[in-house]
Amino acid sequence: MGTGIVSVLMNLIPFHTPVLHYLSIVFFVLNVAIFALASVTSILRYTLYPEIWRVMIQDPTNSLFLATVPMGFATLIDMWVLVCVPRWGEWAASFAWALWMVDVVAAASVTLSLSFILISQRYITSLDRITALQLLPIAATIVAAGAGAEVASILPNKQHALGTLLVSFILWGMGTPLAIVVLVMYYQRLAVHKLPPRETIVSCFLPLGPLGFGGFGIVYIGKVARDLLQGSDILDPIAGQMAYVLGVFISLLMWSFGLIWLVFALATVLYSSPFPFNMGWWGFTFPLGVYAANTIELGVELNLMFFKVFGTVLSAAVLLLWALVVSRTAMGAWHGNLFFAPCLQNLTLKEDENNPESDRLRA
What we know:
The structure is a single chain. The protein is an all-alpha fold. Helix content is about 75%, strand content about 0%. It has a single domain, classed as Glycosyltransferase. Helix 1 (about 1-10) packs antiparallel against helix 2 and helix 2 (about 20-50) packs across helix 4. It is globular.
């Protein structure tokens, strides 16, 4: 997700240069390699050790990270639309459409299943244990909605494009209101129980994810609807124009709400510094990156230099953060002290419960 959003931002920055274009391609290829490696590793893990799947899916924290799979895949689709479709034409557009359908199924499955698992488990979660990580499964459909709007803009068949746009709007509607509900709960948790532990302090950036890509997605949906519904007899002749104008204003509203969470996140990081490095530091990149994408898109649609410059500054910050986190990740991986799966402790406990002999030996 972090590498993918960097590649997307290099394409969205309104001050175009050949360096940014080729840099985006480099990050795109790197992201394909990372996604392929992570996918193969995960498939082997759950194929060779199927018992891990059950304890992982029942873990209230680790299971939420399943949502990162369709979100990371969506960044690949975005780059395919931005880079490959203009070069290779209609077959590339159809291929992007097929990839997006796979992403929609995965994103909707994750959002619905993990959200239900969260509310159906027998254990009781107190307010102080609520974290911004619960936004992850909800954000999956929001990200798929934004990718769908981009795919709809390049489909040659108008009916296919309208259907894609309608599904994108439904996905946006599935995720955005639910994300706002979780943000209300998360704010109450912060107000009552104060800042999260230093180990999870990076999660304070996660609210920027659904707000940033939600704003980007709705303005893109409106922009594509304006073009597709022009001269159409669907609803009303002005339906496309209304969708575009409302999309811009809703996007601006979400950007403004995200600005508050950005200030909260920066203040939290400064207040809690220093804090230990872990894989959670990747939470810096994608949320801030999608907020930068929303900022740039507003600058382009409103033709305001402030948003264009601010979005470019945020994009540069994302690139620097990516470089920092990559270097720290490489160091931790080399020393072998970075990767940790806390859900495996639950597997050990289950094995002990099912093996009375281990209790006797321990006694």
